[in-house]
Amino acid sequence: MANRDKGNHIITTAIEHPSVLNTVQYLHDRYKFDVTFVKPNADGTFPAALIEKNLRPDTILVSMMWANNETGQLLPVKEVGELLSQHQAVFHVDATQVMGKIPVHPLEIGADFLSASAHKFHGPKGVGFLYYNELLHFDALIHGGEQEEKRRAGTENLHSLVGLAKALELALENIESNYQAVEELNHHLLSKLKEQEIPFYKNNFGPSMPHVLNLAFPNENHDLLLTKLDLAGFAISTGSACTAGTIEPSHVLEAVYGKNSDKLKENIRISFSELNTLDEVNLFVEKLSSILK
User: Is pTM, for the whole model, over 0.70?
Assistant: First the structure.
């Protein structure tokens, strides 16, 4: 809104989290911004060239996730940052899925804005942070008092902010060992599925974070599978956790396979953290196997 005199065009991806996707859609519907939702290639890959192809002289914002929350796919944020270094468009990176799990340095990827949420690195729910380039002018989100450098009015949730900072500090202290632990859980689950001779395929579209595994079981209804696993005490999902309870198929997989694909009803999303154990993985595969068989 603060930079509309420079242009009216926004670019984001069709596989963003609803927190970005729905916000950008609102800007289009309410304020008539021209928005381009960039889809991945037919094979699911997402090179920086897809963003470059849609850049225009009047583009003022590009918003892109670092890693996808449903598949773990890593997007080329550094390449896009380099691309935008010679363009007026401001670059926002949604780093929610990577913060505390891999090294994150906004200047290295050319991010003007970078957002993250505490609960993804075991901090308190309902608190997050926004990094921004101090040279940029942008409107206040919430008007009122002059808290947070007049960027967002409202009394700070101080104890949650302290919890966020401490949780991130602890995550960074053990970042390599935590990553290796999650990789081991991911690989162990896949090997156990193969041992059980369970037919499955991965919704994997290139380099990915091991913390999210999107699996599909041919001709199995994922809603029924989700319900049975939930009753057995296993918390998984069929898409974004923020769309849990909806009957809509995954917009991420729809962007790859098309809205009429049978693959949209076969997938489940499994999330790991270093707090999970190999025993939990074994129990999960055992229960999954008994349900499918």
Answer: yes
